[in-house]
Amino acid sequence: MFDDLTTTALQVAASGWSARQRATADNISNINTPNYHAKRVTFEASLQSAIEAGNPAAASIATQTSLEPTEMNGNNVNLDEETVSITDTGLKYQTDIEALTAKYQLLKTSIGNA
Known about the structure:
Layout: H1 5-29, E1 39-42, H2 44-52, E2 62-65, H3 79-112
Antiparallel strand pairs: 1-2
């Protein structure tokens, strides 16, 4: 029922932001774990391509291991980068959810007035 392009794109994006938040939380919690490599979640380019093709549901969310240089203990988590990432991702997730909520509220209002 809610399968228009905008709604689907927002739902995929929310899943991507959520995956990035989990990865960033894992990174921060493992900041002192020897040989731990940070996780990076990508989905924006895939989502953009899928939207352009008219099928946002086809977008993929990929979690990869960071290839950034490591510290002496083999860990490559950078707390400054992770802090910026979790803040940025949280704001984008919140904006995405607010857009979905507004869209559902509009539908609810339309149905109520029918």
